[in-house]
Amino acid sequence: MSKSYYDPSDLRKFGEITEWSEELGKKFFDYYGKVFEEGALSAREKSLIALAVSHVVKCPYCIDAYTKDGLQRGITKEEMMEAVHAGAAIESGATLVHGVQMMNKYKKLSM
Amino acid sequence: MKLKSLKYRKDDLSSPANQLEYLSNGIFKEKELPYFKDKIAQTGHFPLKPKKLEILQINLGYMCNQVCGHCHVDAGPDRKEIMTRETMHQCLDVIKTTGAHTLDLTGGAPEMNPDFRWFVEEASKAGIRDFIVRSNLTIILANKKYHDLPEFFKKHNVHVVSSLPFYKREKTDKQRGSGVFDKSIKALQMLNKVGYAQEGSNLKLDLVYNPSGAFLPTDQAAMENDFKLALKEDFDIDFNNLFAITNLPISRFLEYLIASENYEDYMYALVEAYNPAAVDNLMCTNTISVSWDGWLYDCDFNQMLELKVKSKVKHISEYNEDLLNDREIVISQHCYGCTAGAGSSCQGSVA
Asked: CA–CA distance from B30 to each of B34, B104, B190, B218, B265 (Å)?
């Protein structure tokens, strides 16, 4: 057993989760595969969304996977970084919008 | 410092035997990944046999004006292997009688062979249906004596297939050397100007895309669309088709994979993407590759690994298509490069 929580080579073993719960694992991977097919959104657009979300949920496996996926699709590093910023902006916005709650509470408690 | 060939640097990987050993050790020897032979056996493709011969690919020499980081030929200005006129005569004898419909000249930069033009003139008389020259584009601008190559190609109705790793400067120059992108763009414009890839013209100009790093190409059609839009908008360039080619883990690309610690991940990616449908259409099943010194191989990659055809006939001087068609194709782990995803060949995706 590895002494670190994250091992890059574990990504290759992702499919193995199906071994301990075949039905749910299979359903998940079928769903996952379907989500990233061409649809109303292009596979390229979905790849960029996935990259942004990977950063927001801070998943190192996902970041590795979708950086590579982007390179394969010819997505430029400028596009990738803008996607990361889009994710980061929503994440920081989500924090900052709670500032309104703080302000509300402050005002309520203050004379 | 400018990159030199592995051979010039006397690097261990300049030896094909060492490359093959590397590709059979480690993750393969430890059975983390299956040998190519076992993998294709699982899908009923072993032994791999040729189908009808369609393409005769002739390598005119390893000399090149460029030293690309990913080159499977280990080509460069310091390589002196060049096909002689005597071997060309032997090739012409075969070209006149072959059942193949496509003649494919490659290198190095084939144009640097001093007998290149003579050979093209002679070969074009044989009336082969599709006559390809693989040009790196920059050669056209490398020296005054090459400036008229577009006209020369046009005169002999040569189908030009050119490498352009990406439609943006940065990635192209990183892989192929500084300034390569601008020169390639200029050369493409020159080819367009004499009629290549123009409406109503029969002159064909195809581009080759190969990833500039340790990742695989994806959808060839989507990539072709991106290239077409970008090259038209930015440089008013037209071309016919884009061939997406996977980098095979040999020679300088293998060196890069090892040095950047990407080798294992890359091999895993190739094996994971194994596609039996691609095996059905592998280029080694319809191609014979001839080296600068006349030896015969199943493909250009096997040529660089010095894996000669497994046949009684091993040299162009003793060429016999029936005997050759009965051979078993020589394989190793590098072959996973051609069976990944949509497959890969000198003509792009195959599945």
From this structure: 9, 39, 52, 29, 15
Q: Say if A15 falls within a structural domain.
A: no
Beta pairing partners, B249: none
Who among A43, A72, A74 is closest to B216 (CB)?
A: A72
CB atoms within 10 A of CB A1: 2
B146 Cβ partners below 8 Å, 6+ apart?
A: B111, B139, B140
Q: In this predicted structure, what is the pLDDT of residue B2?
A: 64
SS3 B73: coil
What residue ranges do the domains of chain B occupy?
Answer: 12-339
In chain B, which ranges are E strands? 55-59, 102-106, 130-135, 159-163, 205-209, 242-244, 287-290, 296-297
Chain-chain contact of B168 with A76 (C-beta, under 8 angstroms) = yes
Distance from CA of A13 to the nearest CA of B (A): 11
pTM metric for this prediction: 0.92
Q: Does B229 touch chain A (CB under 8 A)?
A: no
Structural domain contains residue A10: no
Does residue A89 belong to any structural domain of this protein? yes
B222–A73 C-beta distance less than 8 A: yes
User: Is residue B159 helix, strand or coil?
Assistant: strand
Give residue-wise pLDDT tens across range B73-83. 999 999 999 99
Q: Are B57 and B106 in contact (CB under 8 A)?
A: yes
- pLDDT tens column, B105-114: 999 999 999 9
Which residues in B lie closer than 8 A to residue A43 (C-beta atoms)? 219, 222
CATH number of B12-339: 3.20.20
A4 touches chain B (CB under 8 A): no
Distance CA B297, CA B308 (A): 5
Sheet architecture: strand order including B130-135:
B242-244, B205-209, B159-163, B130-135, B102-106, B55-59, B287-290, B296-297
State whether residue B217 sits within 8 Å of chain A by CB.
yes
- Count how many domains chain A has: 1
Residue B68's closest CA among B210, B223, B264? B210
Q: How many CB atoms lie within 10 A of CB A3?
A: 5
Give the separation between CA B45 and CA B29, rounded to whole angstroms. 22
Residue A37 lies in a domain: no
Q: Is A11 on the interface with B (CB under 8 A)?
A: no
Domain containing A72: what range?
A: 43-109
The CATH number for A101's domain is 1.20.1290.10
**B241-284, pLDDT tens digit by residue?**
999 999 999 999 999 999 999 999 999 999 999 999 999 999 99
